[in-house]
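TL;DR need structure tokens for one chain.
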Amino acid sequence: AAYQAGDTTISIMARADDALYAAKNRGRNRVICAENADITPE
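>> reply
TL;DR here they are.
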């Protein structure tokens, strides 16, 4: 999970944790990227 404008430490850790468990549920040796929140081009 990467920082997005307005993120708190808690929200970053929550996205990373969600991605971790998504990877674990899909089996061994998996990598999952955390979903981006609303990203709009600047």
